[in-house]
Write a structure and sequence with these properties.
Blueprint: E1 5-8, E2 13-16, E3 24-29, H1 40-58, E4 62-67, H2 85-93, H3 97-114, H4 130-142, E5 146-149, E6 152-155, H5 157-163, H6 174-180, E7 196-201, E8 217-219, H7 221-233, E9 237-243, H8 247-262, E10 267-273, E11 276-278, E12 281-282, H9 293-298, H10 310-318, E13 326-328, H11 330-352, H12 364-382, H13 387-405, H14 416-433, H15 441-463, H16 467-479, E14 482-486, E15 492-496
Parallel strand pairs: 3-4, 3-9, 9-10, 11-13
Antiparallel strand pairs: 1-2, 5-6, 6-7, 7-8, 11-12, 14-15
């Protein structure tokens, strides 16, 4: 029996996964900043960690999965002017900040439902945990690692680095950070440019503001996650996940804050997914290649040749290892579309089959190969969640399933035990672990209704000997890839090519 190994960004190596409490896993994943609509890049971490959650549960663990909603905060990102994204966007959209937050939180939840992701165990918001953040900041000041200036509070990075390994997660060297950090507006309050805000004094026009011991203000971005993770998962927990873009400064800052407050390193295993590129380019507004999820599902973007179903996108993401760069293109999505169709059709055929034993039909090679391919599902997933390798094995089994369906290979070529293993494994892995659903499932009822209407119209036309209309319906459906077949007794059947 293989043991689950995960790549720990902190140690830069694969490690055997051992939860702090056997059978129980605490996992925190950085959630969306709801200042706007989620895009293709956001889909990757939430689908990735949905599968991690599903697999840990499949292994028999009770998982507490915490994913926050960032609905306030002072965002200090590398090389960028610090801003309050929520307040800024609210002004642009002429909405109250919390009205904006609700709008984009609802849209995010809708998109996650389209991807068939499981809701987290707890979904805390930054604005709902101001008290906890203020308390943490107090502790950091009392410990001597925070300082107040004009109603704002900053974390003293240089002082922390003198006694702690600051930069261990991201691989940054403190001296280099102090030398290379850009001079940005509003940084004159800081002792050093590398220091980051724990609390920011709010200007009179700033709408999102709370009372604190240092005056009216709002929290820094980093402290939010430290506070919420500590509250729901404790001083130390098993997994912290997110995109590689969060390694620095966000996750590095989280470690520093939580270590000072809780007197221990907060996380055992840091897991980061790599980025999505578009036709080989990083996503960015300057390239006009940021594809919002609603645009992806509707096809309404200049880059897109067509709309792509959420299950196609989910399948596309899982076909590449989460730590590898994933390049989006129409060609890649269309290949995934065909691949998912082939795999799902084989799955449906398999589930509809019944085992019928026939003497002398067992194929020893198949009887040996199928269980081996299935056994490797677990081995691959235990090797740092290698979803792509599991899928490769599934595709190797697909021709066997198709041949059984076509009866070119009898079902009894494998034993009943192996057949039931195959049936059960495909269902468990495709539906329960990978979280895939039939692409047609959502649209099936609507399509059935439309097709029945067209069949009724065609029957009526044929009854009136209106063969022009009858042939027109059949021919135009054929152009759309739908075959309409006249059956005995005047019935009609249809199939999608």
């Amino acid at each position: 029996m293989s043991q689950l190994k995960v790549y720990n960004s902190l140690t830069r190596q694969k490690e055997i996964f051992k939860p702090i409490t056997p059978g129980h896993v605490g996992m925190y994943v950085c959630g969306p900043t709801v200042s706007g609509e989620s895009h293709l890049g956001h889909a990757r971490p939430y689908i990735t960690f949905d599968v991690v959650y599903r697999y840990l549960t499949y292994l028999g663990n009770k998982v507490r999965y915490v994913r926050n909603i960032t609905d306030a905060g002072h965002f200090e990102e590398e090389g960028r002017e610090a801003v309050d994204k929520i307040a800024t966007k609210a002004v642009l959209e002429k909405l109250e900040p919390m009205e904006l937050v609700q709008k984009y939180t609802n849209l995010f939840h809708w998109a996650m439902a389209q991807f068939n992701t499981i809701s987290p165990s707890i979904e805390p918001t930054a604005t709902g945990h101001i008290v906890e953040q203020v308390e943490m900041i107090k502790q950091i000041i009392e410990a001597g690692f925070g300082y107040e200036v004009n109603g704002s509070v900053y974390f003293d990075v240089k002082k922390y680095a003198a006694s702690h390994d600051y930069g261990k997660l991201s691989g940054r060297v403190i001296d280099d950070l102090l030398e290379t950090t850009r001079e940005l507006e509003g940084q004159e309050e800081k002792r050093d440019r590398a220091d980051f805000a724990l609390w920011k004094a709010a200007a009179p026009e700033h709408i999102m503001r709370w009372q604190s011991p240092w005056g009216v203000g709002y929290p820094g971005w980093h402290i939010e996650c430290s506070a919420m993770a500590t509250k729901y998962l404790g001083a130390q927990f098993d997994i912290h996940g997110g995109g590689m873009d969060l390694l620095f400064p966000h996750h590095e800052s989280e470690i520093a804050q939580s270590t000072i407050c809780n007197h221990t390193a907060p996380v055992r295993y840091w897991i980061h997914n790599n980025m999505i590129t578009i036709n080989g380019r990083k996503m960015g507004k300057s390239y006009n290649n940021v594809i919002k999820l609603t645009e992806l599902f509707s096809g309404n973007h200049p880059i897109l040749e067509k709309a792509y179903h959420p299950m196609t996108v989910r399948f596309f993401i899982l076909q590449t290892h989460y730590r590898s760069t994933l390049d989006f293109s129409n060609e890649a999505l269309q290949a995934s579309e065909k691949g998912l169709k082939r795999l799902w059709e084989a799955h449906e055929k398999l589930q509809a089959m019944h085992y019928e034993p026939q003497e002398g039909t067992t194929d020893p090679e198949l009887e040996s190969r199928i269980p081996k391919l299935i056994a490797e599902f677990n081995e691959f997933m235990d090797d740092d969640f290698s979803t792509a390798k599991v899928m490769a094995n599934m595709f190797e089994i697909v021709p066997v399933i198709n041949s059984m369906k076509d009866k070119t290979i009898p079902v009894s070529a494998i034993s009943k035990q192996t057949f039931e293993l195959l049936q059960g494994s495909f269902k468990t892995w495709l539906e329960d672990i990978f979280g895939l659903k039939s692409v047609s499932e959502a649209d099936n009822a609507r399509l059935q209704g439309v097709m029945q209407l067209l069949i009724d119209i065609r029957k009526e036309a044929k009854g009136k000997k209106d063969f022009v209309t009858s042939d027109k319906i059949r021919n135009q459906l054929a152009q759309l890839g739908i075959t309409l077949k006249d059956e005995k007794g005047g019935d009609m059947s249809w199939s999608v090519e």
